[in-house]
Amino acid sequence: MNPSDLSAYWLPFTSNRYFKRHPKMLASAKGAYYRTEDGRELFDCISGMWCCPIGHGHPKIAEAIRRQAETLDYSPAFQLGNAATFRLAERIAELAPAGLDRVFFGNSGSEAVDTALKIALAYHRVRGEAGRFRLIGRERAYHGVGFGGISVGGMAANRRAYAGAMLPGVDHLPHTWNPAQMAFSRGQPTWGAHLAEDLERLVALHDASTIAAVIVEPVQGSTGVLVPPLGYLERLREICTRHGILLIFDEVITGFGRLGASFGAQRLGVVPDLITFAKGVTNGTIPLGGVIVRGDIYEAFMSAEAPEYATELFHGYTYSGHPIAAAAGLAALDLYEQEGLFQRARELEPVLEAAVHELRGEPGVADVRNFGLTAGVDLEPFPGQPGLRAFRVFEHGFQNDQLFRVTGDTIAFGPPFISTAAELGRMAETLRAAIRAVRPD
Ligand SMILES: Cc1ncc(COP(=O)(O)O)c(C=O)c1O
């Protein structure tokens, strides 16, 4: 049933005026498909918003949520605990790289990022290095929409309106995408490891003793799937270690199997000091995010000069460690494991790669790239109308039973891990038809 009046709801990151003239309403979802109000099934090319890799409507997750809601629907987050949350922290720590074994919970990726940045600052202070206040992000990064996240983030449109209110002491590394060197790469580009050296420049400029942390997405997702050059993250790791700077991987998209391993850290063979996560942890069913922290970072807070009854970190949310979110998380982690879904993502990687690279040579296709179960297809913008080409591709896809995700003039793919090869083939062929069909004004 469509509501008669669409005026009350202000949609996020949406062209509201257009939407309210052309509403797209989803009614239900099952497996890899959404169903629209008018009964059409749309293949979910981006797992919701990168968050539903297991597919929609899984009865085991629904049952876990129902049971938890009936047993303990909410438990105060401060000074009290509940079993589901402790169990989930343990399970997440088991999946994380060795040494990262403490988990702090929030409710979203944005909160996870703000939490990680605050832990980094507070960690240095608790060790007597309060002068380390600078945070280094990267151009084109997406770290959510909190003031911390947009400050270290590098997507210009997300920052413009708030430019006067950014965190002080933030600097940015260059992004790693260079079409002349890496267009149409399959997997990690071979060019670009040297771009990590820019961190040495920032260290020389600001002095290492003022820098608390560097935050990067292992694969930059929301900006359109930018894959790290071979050797780049390794180099960042070395420079951070040498200068006592914490390295944070924002794995809100890349965590929980998207790159064919538990975390991007394992797939890419680089271990950060902190990992942020959200999205796939509950298969998108209940909002949940958090930070996985190296054990000795946690211990630095515990061994500070303070009595046992003192709070060690003045940070947390009403819904930190929410029991229903934890129950959903436990059910999702069971399914990932029981159904071998991280491995399944790895097996589908070459299938997705082959399907999207078939689009090379279509009119206006400027780049295609992929890694793990992610891919990005860049379109040349229509002259003077940035974003319109991909916007029309999205519309065309929607009318032809594919739910594409666009950012600027890029189409990003992150299909569910339960997808079949035939579905990925249809997805790419529908994109081909859309690219051929769309026109400027
Ligand atoms: C890497 C990364 N960090 C943070 C976020 C923000 O997550 P949320 O929208 O749950 O706040 C996102 C969302 O896409 C993301 O991709």
Write a concise synopsis of the structure shown.
By secondary structure, this protein is α/β, with parallel strands linked by helices. It is built from 16 helices and 15 strands.
Give an account of the 3D structure.
The chain has 441 residues and is of the alpha/beta class. The chain has two domains: 16-54 and 340-437, Aspartate Aminotransferase, domain 1 (Alpha-Beta Complex), CATH 3.90.1150; 62-338, Type I PLP-dependent aspartate aminotransferase-like (Major domain) (Aspartate Aminotransferase, domain 2), CATH 3.40.640. 37% of the residues lie in helices and 16% in strands. The protein has a seven-stranded mixed beta sheet with strand order 4-10-9-8-7-5-6, sandwiched between helices. A four-stranded mixed beta sheet has the order 1-2-3-13. A four-stranded antiparallel beta sheet has the order 11-12-15-14, with helices on one face. α3 runs antiparallel to α13 (323-338). The longest helix has 18 residues, at 109-126. It binds pyridoxal-5'-phosphate (PLP). Pyridoxal-5'-phosphate (PLP) binds next to α5.
